[in-house]
TrEMBL record:
Keywords: Cell cycle, Cell division, Septation
Function, as annotated: Could be involved in septation.
Matching SUPFAM superfamilies: SpoVG-like (SSF160537)
Pfam families recorded: SpoVG
GO biological process: division septum assembly; sporulation resulting in formation of a cellular spore
Positions of transmembrane segments: none
Organism superkingdom: Bacteria
Stored NCBIfam families: PRK13259.1
The protein's name in its UniProt record: Putative septation protein SpoVG
Lineage, highest ranks first: Bacteria, Bacillati, Bacillota, Clostridia, Lachnospirales
Length: 94
């Protein structure tokens, strides 16, 4: 499995959620609404989820193992940091 595209939509409001991300796998399958969240130990991702009848949130799509989760998280956070640096550069130039 290859992550062939990552699209980051930054959230400008104050709060823990920093971005919403879509990833494409093998140029064939897209996962939307992955959240980049700032936690106590730094940035992490939360997979798309839905509130169940019991009030708990359950992931709609998620990796089966920790290696795949780490791969997805590393690719997303690298792209997020790249877009953050690009937008800082635009702010300085403007």
């Amino acid at each position: 499995m290859q992550i062939t595209d990552v699209r980051v939509r930054r959230i400008e409001k104050e709060g823990k959620m920093k971005a919403i991300v879509s990833i494409t796998l093998d140029n064939e399958f897209v996962i939307h609404d992955i959240k980049v969240i700032e936690g106590e130990k730094g940035l992490f991702i939360a997979m798309p989820s839905r509130k169940a009848a019991d009030g708990e949130y359950r992931d709609i799509a998620h990796p089966i193992n920790s290696e795949t989760r780490d791969l997805i998280q590393n690719v997303i956070l690298t792209k997020y940091e790249t877009t953050a640096l690009e937008s800082e550069g635009e702010s300085i130039i403007a």
